[in-house]
Amino acid sequence: MNKNYAHALARLISNLGHPIVLACASLLFVNFQEFSLKKAVQLSGLTLIIAVFPLITYVYYQIQKGNFKDFDVSDQKKRNGLYPILIALQLILLLVLYLMDFSWTIRLGLLSCLFLLVLSYILNFYIKVSLHSSFSVFVSVLLYTLEPKYAFSLFLFALMIAHSRVYLGRHSLIEVVLGTIIGLISGYIFHLWI
Asked: Does pTM top 0.90 for this prediction?
């Protein structure tokens, strides 16, 4: 395979598997598969307004200031500043959905994701965990629980994402494997309690 083509394909896979992109895609897919149109629109809108848009705005602002190089926030030390923001947004969203009495399934999914973020944050002091890998595997396990017919395809995509991260030099193999393990554990927490 042509090296330029392989690099472009790896970048495309990595971009499509970015945690923000994957979160939005999986959020919309699951919401509109599992809930009424009204509830799906409400939940998707709340998630985008409370968590996604503020996160994108924060990262973009940090890129403009020169603190982050790109949306991957690949610098391990700079990720330590991102994790508290991710965790805080997740907690706020969880609280709002709790107060609005959204289902246990939704709250459990958010709690499982919160576990993923907190564990990744703690480990980030020692090693840069691949959030691309952890989140794509996490979403695969969630889909296995909720919509099994799509889970295998997404798990194959998660493997492609992991490979792309190593190929592009964004992560070492151990960082990707660790991310995969965290994603499996976090997803299993959801699967176990659902």
From this structure: yes
